[in-house]
Design brief:
The protein has 525 residues and is α/β, with parallel strands linked by helices. The chain has three domains: 190 residues, 3-Layer(aba) Sandwich (Rossmann fold); 195 residues, HUPs (Rossmann fold), CATH 3.40.50.620; 95 residues, GMP Synthetase, Chain A, domain 3 (2-Layer Sandwich), CATH 3.30.300.10. Helices cover 34% and strands 23% of the residues. The strands form three sheets. Strands 2-1-3-4-9-8-7-5-6 form a nine-stranded mixed beta sheet, with helices on both faces. Strands 12-11-10-13-14 form a five-stranded parallel beta sheet, with helices on both faces. Strands 15, 16, 17 and 18 form a four-stranded mixed beta sheet that branches. Helix 5 crosses helix 6 and helix 14 runs antiparallel to helix 15. It is globular, with a radius of gyration of 27 Å. It starts with 6 loop residues before the first helix and ends in a 13-residue tail after the last strand. Bound molecules: glutamine. The site of glutamine has 12 residues, from strand 6. This is GMP synthase [glutamine-hydrolyzing]. Pathway: Purine metabolism; GMP biosynthesis; GMP from XMP (L-Gln route): step 1/1. It comes from Saccharomyces cerevisiae x Saccharomyces kudriavzevii (strain VIN7).
């Protein structure tokens, strides 16, 4: 991507340098809540290789001790940018280390709430704030003031809880303003960006649409074509709609029906995307191909691999068919990567950094010699949803629960056959329908039905039955890292169980999964 096309060159941007704290991404998150654009990069980022000029720099916290031999250190070129700098915890210790090395082990670790006492109320960093609760998480501390600094705030255990350079806008704070336990932390971050860095608060999804459409047009140029896979989920639909707005029918969307999609999914996606949103979409029915390859396979990892590889194969074949139609070359592959994936791949984890490349995308890029286009890579999930609403994508789709790539294949435990998929699909459809009817869909993060590979005895109409078991799952979570099961009313579960057993042939029994994550995962396979 050419430097001139970066979002950080278009919007005023705060650069967050990540030293590996578990809270680093929250700094970015909080600033964006104030319509301030912020981007996070690893602490090892060379400023000369940045390609854009930040309005301010924030140094995050981190697990290291600045005085340790292998501790990460910031590129000193940040001081030549002549923009305000804010060091948070490790970031503050780093500033002190650079200016006199007054950092060492504290007498005791400090973890949890403390009271911030502001000494200099007139300092713009504390505008609109008063003494408040802040969140501490450190074992090291400043043993004295760094050269050229003064104290502007204290706490009981930290005499240098807030410091500032005598003549430059360089700040350090011992606490974490980015976590919600710091009751006025958001205000402090906003003050830093707005009062000190004079960042424009123009990061809105309305502005993003305009700039992104221009950016896509410049990047793709007047003739090149773009191809992308849609899944029926929010990310790929939003990305596709954005591409369509930018380059019209030069964007080709493909939905591969792998035979393990939800009930009536392919037809529904076609209707919404083509008729509703004007997206140039081809639906490819490859269900027989997928199901044939899945025959006899019961191992979950094998199922995932088969589906991933078959997908690449089918997608490439379909892309070939599109080419001769207009005689032009497909040059780009659209991918709905979101900012949390980007953060995950760049976040500082010590000397070795792990980069995660999506299995499917990696393969396609290599085989098809395509360049990647990722219009959502700067956005958090809630920003994507907001964008979706603005682009006119139906509300139900924008707020849809996530659905795994291998689809119902990992919700049919054991061998995947057409008949088994049909049972799981119908049960799932009834379950989701009832959840929506009860007005619970938006309170639940993800819900689905699983078909278990066991048989159980039942009795229906005086006849003995010997049929399968459906397990229902519904979880609440904010980040999908940990999750708890949703506490349905008994009457709700009763209704769903009775409908599934009555309406879905082959099911004799329904159970509800009451395991949290961890120890269980969200999906069963
Ligand atoms: N590792 C440093 C300490 O223990 C910094 C901690 C942090 O940034 N949260 O003090």
């Amino acid at each position: 991507m050419a430097a001139g096309e970066q979002v950080s060159n278009i919007f005023d941007t705060i650069l967050v340098l990540d030293f590996g704290s578990q809270y680093s991404h929250l700094i970015t998150r909080r600033l964006r809540e104030f319509n301030i654009y912020a981007e996070m990069l690893p602490c090892t980022q060379k400023i000369s290789e940045l390609g854009w000029t930040p309005k301010g720099v924030i140094l995050s916290g981190g697990p290291y001790s600045v005085y340790a031999e292998d501790a990460p250190h910031v590129d000193h070129a940040i001081f030549d940018l002549n923009v305000p700098i804010l060091g948070i915890c490790y970031g503050m210790q780093e500033l002190a280390w650079i200016n006199g090395k007054q950092v060492g082990r504290g007498d005791k670790r400090e973890y949890g709430p403390a009271t911030l006492k502001v000494i200099d109320n007139s300092n713009p960093l504390f505008k609109g704030m008063n003494d408040s609760t802040v969140w501490m998480s450190h074992g090291d501390k400043l043993h004295g003031l760094p050269t050229g600094y003064k104290t502007i705030a204290v706490s009981d255990n930290s005499p240098y809880c807030g410091i500032v350079h005598e003549t430059k806008a360089i700040y350090g704070i011992q606490f974490h303003p980015e976590v919600t336990h710091s009751t006025q932390g958001k205000t402090l971050l906003k003050n830093f960006a707005v009062e000190l860095c004079h960042t424009k608060q123009n990061w809105t999804m309305e502005n993003f649409i305009d700039t992104e459409i221009n950016r896509i047009r410049n990047l793709v140029g007047p003739t090149a074509e773009v191809i992308g896979a849609v899944s029926g989920g929010v990310d790929s639909t939003v990305a596709s709609k954005l591409m369509t707005e930018a380059i019209g029918d030069r964007f080709h969307a493909i939905l591969v029906d792998n035979g393990v999609l939800r009930l009536n999914e392919a037809a529904n996606v076609k209707k919404t995307l083509v008729e509703g949103l004007g997206i140039n979409l081809d639906v490819v029915d490859a269900s027989e191909e997928f199901l044939t390859k899945l025959k006899g396979v019961t191992d979950p990892e094998k199922k995932r691999k088969i589906i991933g590889n078959t997908f690449i194969h089918v997608f490439e074949r379909e892309a070939e068919k599109i080419k001769p139609k207009d005689g032009k070359e497909i040059q780009f592959l659209l991918q709905g990567t979101l900012y949390p994936d980007v953060i995950e791949s760049i976040s500082f984890k010590g000397p070795s950094q792990t980069i995660k490349t999506h299995h499917n995308v990696g393969g396609l890029l290599e085989n098809m010699k395509l360049k990647l286009i990722e219009p959502l890579r700067e956005l958090f999930k809630d920003e994507v949803r907001h964008l979706g609403e603005l682009l006119g994508i139906p509300h139900d789709l924008v707020w849809r629960h996530p659905f795994p790539g291998p689809g119902i294949a990992i919700r049919v435990l054991g061998e995947v056959t057409k008949e088994q998929v049909e049972i799981a699909r119908k049960a799932d459809n009834i379950y989701i329908e009832e959840i929506k009817k009860a007005g619970l869909y938006n309170q639940i993060s993800q819900a689905f039905a699983c078909l278990l590979p066991v048989k159980s005895v039942g009795v229906m109409g005086d006849q003995r039955t010997y049929d399968q078991v459906i397990a229902l799952r519904a979880i609440e979570t904010t980040d999908f890292m940990t999750a708890d099961w949703f506490p349905f009313e008994h009457s709700f579960l009763k209704k769903v169980a009775s409908r599934i057993v009555n309406e879905v042939d082959g099911v004799a029994r329904v159970t509800y999964d009451i395991t949290s994550k961890p120890p269980a995962t969200v999906e069963w396979e």
